[in-house]
Design brief:
The chain has 211 residues and is mostly helical. 63% of the residues lie in helices and 3% in strands. The chain contains seven helices and two strands, in the order H-H-H-H-E-E-H-H-H. The chain has a two-stranded antiparallel sheet with strand order 1-2. Strand 1 (121-123) and strand 2 form a beta hairpin. Helix 1 packs antiparallel against helix 7 (191-208). The chain is elongated. The N and C termini lie far apart (60 Å).
Length: 211
Amino acid sequence: MASPATLPISNPQSESQPPIATPAFRAFISRLNATVRNGLSQRRPWLELIDRSSFSRPDTLSEAASRIRKNFSYFRVNYVSLLALSLALSLLTHPFSLLVLLSLLAAWLFLYLFRPSDQPLVIGGRTFSDREMLGILVLSTIVVVFLTSVGSLLISALLVGLAVVCAHGSFRMPEDLFLDDQEPANSGFLSFLGGAASSAAAAAPAVATRV
């Protein structure tokens, strides 16, 4: 007598779970992309930035400081782009530092910020709580930024970028620029900070449940 056919039973625990909260991650990337695009759309023409006929040596330090302030108000998107370019070139010429920073960023995104809260993190057969993982990530960030060459590389790249920006701002005459005194100080590319803050506020409830 033939034995009855057995029906396959699916085990919910064996089903693969997504390693990252996809909707929240996609919303974050979408908002970040929109903020960066909006900031870059307000940059000034690069030819206007390097117009040779508009350069002259400042007579006094106060004049140089005034030029820097006015030029930064007008070219702030371009200046921030130059700082980002300085950081990018420094990291590209030091692949190990770039790999370390990308690994650290991936760890924050995949292991804490956008990991599903109902999915425990198991490494080497040990389950880590959210508080333990947060402490590990914070400690790793401090070690990478302050106790390795990565931190000095980032600081040196920022100093080089700031030197270029200050040199350009002090020698570029702002008399031919159309400065609008009523323009809000946080417009342009610096509105990225506001967009990032709103993104963090939107993600706050999900992160707060982990702590």
